[in-house]
Amino acid sequence: MSGARQGLIGALVPPMLVLLAVGLGAELAKGLGLLPITVPAPSQVAAMLPTSFDDLMYHGARTVRSALTGYAVAASLALALASVALAIRALERPIVSMAVLVDCIPIIAIAPIFVIWIGQGPHLHVTVAAIAAFFPLLVGAVQGFRAIDRNMEELFHVIAASRWQRLCKLAVPSALPYLFAALKIAAPLALLGTLIAEWMGTDRGLGAMIVLSLFSFDVARTWLTILTVCGLSALAYGLIALIESRVVTWTGPADGGHGGR
Amino acid sequence: MTEIILRNVAKRFLLPDREVSALEGIELTLPTGSFTALIGPSGCGKSTLLRLVADVLRPSEGEIRIGANAPSVARRKHEIGFVFQEASLLPWRNVLGNVCLPIEVARVPATRDPKALVHMVGLAGFEEARPAQLSGGMQQRVAIARALALDPKVLLMDEPFGALDEITRQRMNLELLRIWKSTGTTAVLVTHSISEAVFMADTVLVLSANPGRIAHRIEVDMPRPRRLEMMRQLAFNALENEVRAALFDDSGAVA
Q1: Whether A148 contacts chain B with CB within 8 A
Q2: Has residue B45 been placed in a domain?
Q3: Residue A259 sits at the chain B interface (C-beta within 8 Å)
Q4: Residues of the domain holding A177
Q5: Closest approach of A153 to chain B, Cα-based (Å)
Q6: B window 171-230, beta carbon within 8 A of A
């Protein structure tokens, strides 16, 4: 397993180096007085961490919970709708068109309307997170289901597989590479949706923490919160990529496949 | 008794602007336990014929019987084994998992031990291997084992070894004949190869194109079990020439 560990280190080193370079550059620029007052030195942000850590955990827990719930709702809904599109091909276009329409609505504009409809609080955050994450998930699922090999479909027909068996044993596994690509894109979007919903007014959540820090003109604390959100996004992406590498073990750069060709 | 009978079968495909006739007036009786080879130029409808028997396609005209049943009934009773030109294995399942697929889907107690099937096609020790780790020939063996998993009454093969090299192909043919003999299925093989058709079959059916018809029927009265040496015999060559002549009968001027 040392190979896997080396792979992990190899994957982590380049982004770490970039982060370090950016941090050092910002520190230097701040020291030379090149940065405006609204951008603190990385060291100032880091200095905020001990005093703000409890707050970050308190607000972060709520945000993560809302984003995760919205993400799960969006993924379930996307999978269900894509299954319907798979079963009834005529519905594929209407479903995708509907998803495009939903995706075209600017979340920042629709969020206040949802406040009126369903009120403030966790419901709102989950709903907006789900809407934000929905589109790539649906497109991924639909494309994944479309990528089923024609011979495989004939095979499942010849062995008299039921629709349910086709879905579980053929369609979903075939779509997994596409689904994971979509899941990776959608995770940061769910977090962003939660943040936007929290700006509409709440007393708990990283979105609220950013607003509160801004109002008290605590620049360092604002940036600390923003960086926390970035870290969470990257973490979510990385986690899903890790799960993907464990689950989708059959696709690789070399497709293997047909030896003689 | 599992004869395959086709009575006056025709298949036409509707294109946006016209109707294309793939097969016309097919009259066939393939006896129980026989081995039939279908050969013909590209687009003569030999794959279509196979798919009609497998109930992947429905005939536009005529009637097909597998034993006493229509193909759709035979298919649901898991009496049909099908081998595609490409192995078409599920890449996320290992060899044993792929062979077990029809058994899982049918939810019947396995009549054949999947491990014994893997053994029969010469892949003992590869049960846990993923398809991507196997050569083309090994993948096709898995596909054959999978097709036999439910002990089908008819085994339909659509150019199963078309993508393999000549040496692997001959070895696979010998094994296929051994397996066919031991299972007693009624086998139909679509092929492009004249020598393969003669070597494998009791009857070689030569199809002509536009529309697809059975142009010639050549009985192969070579003894079984067939051995590779037979391919050097005069009788074998004579049969090959007969098939070749039949093949180029209607397209000879072009060739």
Answers
A1: no
A2: yes
A3: yes
A4: 53-247
A5: 10
A6: none
ipTM for the predicted complex: 0.88
Q: Which amino acid is at B55?
A: D
| pTM listed for this prediction | 0.79
In a domain, A238, yes or no: yes
pLDDT tens, position by position, A188-230: 999 999 999 998 878 889 999 999 998 888 888 999 999 999 9
Candidate from B87, B102, B163 with C-beta closest to A159: B102
Question: What is the distance in angstroms between the Cα of B87 and the nearest Cα belonging to chain A?
Answer: 8
The DSSP-derived string for A181-241 is HHHHHHHHHHHHHHHHHHHTS-SSSHHHHHHHHHHTT-HHHHHHHHHHHHHHHHHHHHHHH
Do residues B199 and B242 both lie within one domain?
A: yes
How many folded domains does chain B comprise? 2
Same domain, B176 and B73: yes
Q: Please check whether residue A65 touches B, CB under 8 A.
A: no
- Alpha carbons A107 and A152: distance in angstroms, whole number: 40
User: In terms of domains, do B168 and B254 share one?
Assistant: yes
Kindly indicate the confidence band of residue B126, based on its pLDDT and cuts at 50, 70 and 90: very high
| Domain assignment of residue B124, yes or no | yes
Same domain, yes or no, for B72 and B161?
A: yes
Residue A112 identity: P
The full DSSP string for B2-59 is --EEEEEEEEEEE-SS-EEEEEEEEEEEE-TT-EEEEE-STTSSHHHHHHHHTTSS--
- Considering only CB atoms, A259 lies closest to which of B85, B106, B135, namely B135
Tell me the CATH number at A182: 1.10.3720.10
pLDDT digits (tens, 9 = 90+) for A127-171: 999 999 999 999 999 999 988 888 899 999 999 999 899 999 999
Determine which of B66, B99, B105 to mutate to test the interface with A (most A C-beta atoms within 10 Å).
Answer: B105
CATH of the domain at B207: 3.40.50.300
Quote the percentage of chain A above a pLDDT of 90.
Answer: 51
Determine the structural domain holding residue B137 and report its residue range.
Answer: 87-151
